[in-house]
Specification:
Layout: E1 9-16, E2 19-27, H1 28-41, E3 46-51, H2 54-57, H3 63-66
């Protein structure tokens, strides 16, 4: 929990070698579920789940969460 009472936000990324193919930012519980789903879907790829930097914790949702829920780099 952060000082504001909200859950910590985390960033989950899926990598194909050195290329990021998916990017998701959400509350910790949702990020953990997303990571588990991506690991099932892409068992051979690297999946990272990192805390969102403190500078971005209090920002409103951006395009990663709202415009592209799967975080795909192609359209």
């Amino acid at each position: 929990m952060t000082a504001g009472g909200s859950s910590e936000r985390r960033r989950v990324r899926t990598w194909f070698g050195r290329y990021q193919i998916a990017d998701y930012i959400g509350e910790s519980a949702y990020a953990d579920r997303y990571e588990a789903a991506m690991r099932r879907r892409f068992p051979g790829l690297e999946i990272t789940n990192e805390p969102l930097p403190a500078a971005r914790q209090d920002q409103e949702l951006d395009g990663i969460e709202t415009g592209n829920p799967l975080g795909l780099v192609w359209s």
